[in-house]
Sequence to fold (645 residues):
Amino acid sequence: MQLSFAPLKGNSRNYKILVGVLAALVAAGLIAYLVAYAYGFRLWGVNNSVTWGQLITVDFFFIGLSAGSLVVSSLVYVFGQEKYKPIGRMAVYMGLLLMMGAMFTVLTDLGRLEKFWRLFMYFYLSNMKSMFGINGIFYAGYILLLGTYLVAALSNSKLTKFIAPVAVLWAMLVHMGTGAIVGFIETRHIMYSPLKPIEFVSAAFASGLALVTLLSYLTLRFSKRPINKDMFVSLGKLLVALILILMVLVTVDKLTHFYPPKREAVMFLIAGPWAWIFWLQVALGYFIPLGILCNPWLRKKVGWVIAACAICVVGIFFERAAIIFPGLSQPLEYYPGEIAGIWGARGGFLIMPAETLQTLGIVALLGLLFVLGLKFMDLTPAPAEGEHAQAEATEQAAPAAEGGHT
Amino acid sequence: MANWSMVIDLDKCVGCQACSLACKAENNVPHGSPHEHKRHHDIFWHKVIAASEGEYPSVNTQIIPMPCMHCDHPPCVNVCPSKATYKRGDGIVMQNFRRCLGCRYCIVACPYGARSFNFKDQEDEEYQRPDLPPDLDLSYGGHIGPWPYPHRTRGVVEKCTYCFHRIDQALQNGQEVGTKLDGNHGVLPACVEACPTEARFFGDLDDPDSAVHKIMASRGPFKLREDMLTSPKTIYLPR
Fold:
């Protein structure tokens, strides 16, 4: 089947409003960052105990989503599953955007943004024993690969077949590396686990697949493009498998740390002050989507599949938050006994306007680039014959939900 | 080359915090405010913790002064992506403000909470001595010794340096460094010098004649969080 792609016209009122709103959010985020940079990060919620905050959480989340997007695209370009072709290009584009978003978050999280280039002076100025330093190679290579991949996919080049497998394998490296950033830190017992890199890849695949399914459905729906329901239902089945793998990994990880008598870290995670984050992860990330997708009636209805995907994406966001916030706020045991004052208190975290606006701004920036990409690149399948005229007349952009997919 | 080490005798320590104050004065560390302290935004190169076990009346409180442990296997040096934190040949773990990106990975990795992020520029009303390091520029070679970095800025991570500027300056001038058992001390880090009960000792661990070397053989010295295998060089004598 020869599938043709065509951009959105992007003339409708809704499209313009969406672009305007997203652009305003981006501007607000930029101003928030500049103010925070000028006044120091005291304007943020981060502090000396919970030293990574919203931005790093979103960073891990975006990196994961990016990998998952690539996996969906690999169904088309590596495994030759033609039925997924309508969303293949969108998946590649989203993979690139999300990775760029991850870079925006991690770089603006640096106290001194102007020195970021030091991260990319491999083996010369950067420390190659640092997981962060090693990931510098992975991230830069990944963005280059994704750019090439997107150009190849857009031009239907034969090269796609060669780039796609490399990009997917590289995506695994990127996400295992990111998992290692937290997984190799013995000091923080909630983070420390040999399973973390694999858990990250698994969570990445599940959340990314869910996000691509969600966004591509919304895009096709609101741009009145043809929707192949079977494709979305089968993506739902794939999501079940990925969530199950993730659940097993998380359970084994937590059980390993729960089984021995030294189980404070797990208890802090599942019953401590931040326990709600973990239980939201479990409920929204695993149980509710599985409940929907394993139900013999609901799993055949596209609307329910999409709802399950949306819930799963939110749940995996909490999975990232459940690494950062409880992981960092658990007090360090300098010495046995109860340590008085701030040194023994668990870390707190305030939701501060500057940090939140910046996070929203970066999310809005990705939404904006996605929406503009739909207009200026051949990402969506062309409207079906006959519906062409009508579709163009009523064409609308993807809904605002895209801007707020966290 | 020397292998600098600090021994803190917990039996002598009275928890007066003179060491913390001396550190703030010597290294020009911002004193912070109650508000900042509540939000855990203030900078400490040295802290004193009190760990209690048991319930009143059978309670035991252990007061432990904690500078940087200057580990032999420092996790912070491993994780720093930009070589901003590194171990010198004499074992002092340094933080170069000029290289530091402010990614705060080292704070995540440090098992001793020895590192602080600088959340703001020092304000005028704060205690500020532009004539003291690290607010001096690179060209300064005066009484306080050479500092490898320009001046303090916000957005980077700071930590204890064992007052390396004093040590380097002393070695340059041919002075003695470290605690002497006979009381004729050489040049010492500010916290060691300030301790009113002489609970702190500083010196070369590899030198068999040094005070720290001899004290190490006395009363079952221990290190904090030995299970982390970081082998700290700030060592404690039990109470």
DSSP finds twelve helices and one strand in chain A. The first helix of chain A runs from residue 13 to 39. The radius of gyration of chain A is 21 Å.
